[in-house]
Design goal:
alpha/beta, Rossmann fold, 2 domains, four-stranded parallel beta sheet, elongated
Length: 327
């Protein structure tokens, strides 16, 4: 019996070893690959814009999507927008939704320079990189909230002044003009108004009326009709974006003043390019909407890669567009 036990022990040990080996996973499945670790995942970037019904933001989205396709190994992109320029609550909700979904960065064209700052502060507190494009966030509110968010975009005042300066060459000193402003709490709206005003003042033009059409075509049309009726000697309408310029153009036609009242805009959307070629709109400014989001995305990727990088603004191009440029 003792001899049997001595022989049985090695057999049992061998059986146990075989059992353990059969349960062990293959070498290629034993540990997850390094690339599967969270820190090696592609960054997810959310692009949050204003109204996608506006051709400017539609072209911005297309430019960003094209860039992502060309750099699909570098990052993932989530594109969002709101129904119109005034839907602030929805844009705030989009920021919160993107933070909750775990994005690494938010690139945002804020509908309001002040109202979005608290939501973006919360995003930064959650570790999300934030880059501001198109409409600059209010510096005083940023200081109050104790956060630094880089602005990547053009000098809107300089762009509007280029448009106003060109318009002035087609008018004479003392001519009456009217201005259609954007949303007055938006930094870019304020800057464009200031650019128009500076150009008109230098040229000796008289601004007889200036009202906000909230960036919207239909509101611009209604306001322009009223302003033209009240000021029958107006020679030009300066619109702070191209949607409002199209609304103003329709008002000029309805008022029977086509060719007698010049219209200028800002954004260089396709419909305005066509109107410029046809001689119906005099000029616009191109802030390169198809590239603007890309500039912001590239800046966000740099900040994701180096969280300690200095937070700096980046100025992007803005160019005058006339019929000569569209030939």
């Amino acid at each position: 019996m003792t001899e049997f036990r001595i022989r049985l022990i090695p057999c049992l040990l061998l059986a146990v070893c075989c059992l353990l080996m059969s349960c062990a996973p293959p070498a290629d499945q034993a540990e997850p690959a390094a690339a599967a670790k969270p820190e090696n995942k592609k960054p997810r970037i959310a692009l949050i814009m204003k109204s996608l019904a506006n051709d400017f933001f539609s072209s911005m989205a297309k430019g960003a999507e094209q860039h992502q396709r060309e750099h699909s190994d570098d990052y993932e992109l989530i594109v969002n927008g709101i129904k119109d320029e005034r839907d602030l609550s929805r844009q705030v909700a989009l920021v919160e939704e993107m933070v909750a979904s775990g994005v690494d960065a938010i690139v945002i064209a804020p509908a309001d320079s002040k109202a979005l700052v608290p939501a973006l502060r919360r995003a930064r507190a959650a570790g999300v990189v934030v880059v501001n494009i198109d409409n600059k966030l209010d510096e005083e509110i940023l200081a109050t909230e104790k956060i630094a968010i880089p602005f990547v975009g053009p000098d809107n005042q300089a762009g509007a002044k280029k448009v106003g300066d060109y318009l002035a060459t087609k008018l004479k000193a003392g001519d009456e003009v009217i201005v259609l402003e954007g949303i007055r709490t938006s930094f870019n709206g304020t800057q464009r108004r200031l650019g128009f005003e500076a150009a008109m003042k230098e040229a000796g033009m008289k601004i007889v009326d200036s009202q906000s059409a909230q960036w919207e075509m239909s509101m611009a049309n209604t306001l322009a009709l009223s302003m033209l009726s009240e000021h029958p000697n107006v020679k030009a309408i300066l619109a702070a974006n191209d949607s409002m310029a199209l609304g103003a153009l329709a008002a000029v036609k309805n008022n029977g003043k086509a060719g007698a009242v010049a219209v200028v805009g800002f954004d260089n959307i396709a419909a305005v390019q066509l109107a410029i070629r046809d001689g119906q709109i005099l000029a616009t400014a191109d802030q390169h909407g198809g590239e603007l989001a890309v500039f912001g995305i590239e800046h966000a990727l740099l900040l994701i890669k180096d969280p300690h990088a200095k937070i700096e603004d980046r100025e992007t191009p803005v160019d005058l567009i006339t019929a000569e440029d569209l030939k």
